[in-house]
């Protein structure tokens, strides 16, 4: 289908789309090559917007103008993992001991990997594991790192490692 250029007093063929509104709608007008060049030269997406509106648009543009899943939404994998980690089902009084006797237990591959992820010695007392976990959470929390997904993934690994050791210590201590 051929269109006539939608520029005032132009009878050329309109082959090029030009937006009518800045809302990214499907509304457009057809212009000839000469007039689409003129249109593009003068087009300012932000005309008529104040500074606050421009800043809000640019912030929204960083996430492609789509809502993001809140870090705190109830079905977020990380939130579920995080809440389970923070539930301390271990007897606090028993775990205040030195736990040097944990070195006599054999740890499985997952435990050893978890100690490595946390950057601590194998068989370290529980209180020291908790202290290290808190330090790592503060360091790698996405809120402390401009919301970076890279840090969210690192924090997930740290939380999984902590959960692994928490379960192991509970199992070995309760037996």
List keywords for this structure.
6 helices; mainly alpha; 4 strands; two-stranded antiparallel sheet; two-stranded antiparallel ribbon; 175 residues; single chain; 2 domains
Structure in words:
By secondary structure, the chain is mainly α. The protein folds into 2 domains: 59 residues, no CATH class; 98 residues. It is built from 6 helices and 4 strands; from the N terminus they run ββββαααααα. It is rod-shaped.
- What gross morphology would you assign? rod-shaped
What is the rounded Rg?
29 Å
Number of helices: 6
Order of helices and strands: EEEEHHHHHH
Strand sequence of the main sheet, in spatial order?
1-2
The counted number of beta strands is: 4
* Class by alpha and beta content: mainly alpha
Could you describe the largest sheet, including whether it forms a barrel?
Answer: 2 strands, antiparallel
Summary of the model, kept short:
The chain is mainly alpha-helical. The chain has helices spanning 33-42, 51-61, 77-86, 109-118, 126-140, 149-174; strands at 3-4, 13-14, 16-19, 28-31.
Secondary structure elements and pairings:
Blueprint: E1 3-4, E2 13-14, E3 16-19, E4 28-31, H1 33-42, H2 51-61, H3 77-86, H4 109-118, H5 126-140, H6 149-174
Antiparallel strand pairs: 1-2, 3-4
Helix pairs in contact: 3-6, 4-6, 5-6
């Amino acid at each position: 289908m051929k269109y006539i250029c939608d520029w005032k007093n132009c009878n050329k063929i309109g082959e090029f789309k030009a937006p009518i509104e800045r809302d990214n709608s499907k509304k457009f007008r057809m212009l000839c090559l000469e007039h689409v060049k003129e249109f593009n030269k003068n087009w300012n997406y932000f005309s008529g917007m104040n500074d606050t509106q421009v800043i809000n648009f640019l912030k929204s543009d960083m996430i492609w103008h789509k809502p993001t899943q809140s870090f705190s939404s109830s079905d977020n994998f990380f939130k579920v993992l995080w809440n389970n980690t923070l539930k301390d089902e271990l007897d606090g009084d028993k775990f205040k001991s030195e736990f040097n006797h944990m070195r006599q237990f054999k740890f499985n591959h997952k435990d050893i990997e978890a100690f490595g992820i946390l950057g601590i010695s194998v068989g370290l007392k529980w209180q020291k594991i908790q202290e290290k976990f808190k330090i790592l959470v503060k360091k790698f929390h996405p809120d402390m790192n401009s919301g970076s997904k890279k840090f969210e993934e690192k924090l997930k690994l740290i939380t999984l490692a902590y959960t692994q050791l928490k379960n192991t210590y509970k199992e070995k201590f309760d037996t």
